[in-house]
Specification:
mainly alpha
């Protein structure tokens, strides 16, 4: 794995989080749709209306299950990325990568949080990524 590919891999945690938020919003929208599917029992064709509503609710439930599966896959990807970072066996380098790729801090924010110079953070990120590339080969 190249350094560029490793950076993209680590950034996958961020994009997984964004997608999880979007999927959760979609799931909420489905629930609201299900709640809005009120049944009018006063009409003559009550059985067919009930069957139609039940069918729609089942479709919504299936959609929710698919979303839940996709969310779980994304969460597993995030766990995999965190496990990869832990392969460094270096608390300092791991901390820098966690701030940068798991907590989504900029290099400047990471430097401030860890009381390092910006350049030091850049060097530590580069060193950690090189080290991970070697371990992942």
């Amino acid at each position: 794995m190249t350094e560029c590919e490793m950076r993209e891999y680590l950034e996958g945690h961020f994009y997984a989080s964004k997608k999880i938020k979007a999927l959760e919003a979609e799931k909420l929208q489905l629930r609201l749709k299900a709640q809005g599917g009120a049944i009018n029992y006063e009409e003559n064709n009550t059985v067919s209306k009930l069957n139609h509503t039940e069918r729609k609710l089942m479709e919504i439930a299936d959609d929710e299950n698919e979303i839940d599966c996709e969310i779980q896959k994304l969460k597993n990807k995030q766990k995999e990325i965190r496990r990869t970072i832990s392969l460094l066996h270096d608390n300092d380098l791991e901390s820098v990568l966690i701030f940068r790729y798991i907590v989504y801090r900029s290099e400047e924010e990471t430097a401030e949080e860890l009381h390092y110079a910006n350049r030091t953070v850049q060097e530590k990120i580069k060193k950690a990524i090189k080290k991970l590339c070697v371990k992942m080969c």
